[in-house]
Design a protein that fits this description.
3-stranded antiparallel β-sheet; Large ribosomal subunit protein uL22; structural constituent of ribosome; about 30% strand; two-stranded antiparallel sheet; about 40% helix; Ribosomal_uL22_sf; alpha+beta
């Protein structure tokens, strides 16, 4: 079984988010969420919430299908960060000049699956 969750327009650069996402790729979903609780990066909180949301989505999907569900069996099959829109802002500088400030955002997607489903998707 597979479940997906995504968050969009997170106000963090994709590069910073990828540093955190790479730490948990391929791990057990529950352990990954627990380990992110102790990461110093601010985006770790958003990624942890996203993983917990994917676990909850898997629970709902299993209940709907009438299947057995154990969240400790779920692994992170896929997790990736895409760039979102960039807000452009202007900062005044000396002598009438202006600097452009780029406020970047990102979209994060996570797919959790049971190990059997994760192996079938890899083939």
């Amino acid at each position: 079984m597979e479940a997906k969750a995504q968050t969009r327009y997170i106000r963090v650069t994709a590069q910073k988010a990828r540093r955190v996402v790479n730490l948990v790729r391929g791990q057990n979903a529950v352990e990954a969420a627990a380990s992110l609780k102790f990461q110093p990066q601010a985006v770790a909180t958003d990624v942890r919430k996203l993983i917990e949301s994917a676990i909850a989505n898997a629970r709902v999907k299993a209940d709907k299908a009438g299947e057995r569900f154990d969240e400790r069996e779920l692994v992170i099959k896929e997790i990736f960060v895409d760039e979102g829109p960039t807000m452009k802002r202007i900062q005044p500088r000396a002598q009438g000049r202006a600097n452009r400030i780029l406020k970047r955002s990102s979209h994060i997607t996570v797919v959790v699956a049971t190990p059997v489903a994760a192996k079938e998707g890899a083939k």
